[in-house]
Amino acid sequence: MTEIFDEYKDRGLISLYLYGSILTNDYNEGESDIDSIGFASEDMPLTLEKEIKNKLCEKSEFDKFGFRLLYKSELDAGAIKGNLASFIHPQLLLLDFPYWKHAAGKIFLRSDFLLDDIDTAEAVKIRLNHLVKIEDGSFKTEPGNKHILFLKVLARIMFHLQKERGYSEPFSYSSVFSHSNEEEKPVARAILNCKKNKWNQLLFKEDENIYKNFINVLNNRYSLLP
Predict the structure, then answer these.
(1) For 214, what's the count of Cα atoms within 13 Å in the CB-facing half-sphere?
(2) CA angle 21, 25, 28 (to 5 degrees)
(3) Can you tell me the distance from the alpha carbon of 84 to that of 103, in angstroms, rounded to the nearest whole number?
(4) 193-226 pLDDT per residue, tens
(5) What is the number of other CB atoms lying within 10 angstroms of the CB of residue 11?
(6) Which of 125, 136, 174, 129 is nearest to 27 (CA)?
(7) What gap in Å lies between CA 46 and CA 49, rounded to an integer?
(8) For the whole model, what pTM was predicted?
(9) DSSP 203
(10) Is residue 1 helix, strand or coil?
């Protein structure tokens, strides 16, 4: 990744970070994606995102090497410019930032970004709204992948709830299951089972009522909060 960074540092790339399952016990070599983020200056064209991703895949000889640009200004309350911040709320990205691993370029601290932290209630509300957008088609997904995104967001909601209870590990499906309480356990078990079966859509359909009942509980609980 250092080689890639050196190639693009004069074109607006500030640093490279790894995030996601590559940093957790969920990672399965040869099967799981490798996810990476490039912090970018304002003048870096978004069109370079795909070019860098392709080069990461080529250099690593791994076609599941993901890459997204994240403009620093997006974490400073600036306008949303990139794909990542359009898809994941910048304040949610900052909640996850402490778990990212620096790979090349500038090392950022949380204090380098101007956006305020949000609490668990606000994070859950944002994620619940995300689920609504997935269901109504506002977020475009590849055919057959809608349920996968749905389950990933639902797992993240449980992660936020568990962090509030004092658990500090980075997000992983196995840790979400192991830290789930009685209310969360059936949901976490169903998600983990679907993931282990390559996100089988029939399994998702079988357990759909489990997910919907849990979401209804959360909607009722958090609709009462300011």
Answers:
(1) 27
(2) 65
(3) 19
(4) 999 999 999 999 999 999 999 999 999 998 865 5
(5) 14
(6) 174
(7) 6
(8) 0.91
(9) H
(10) coil
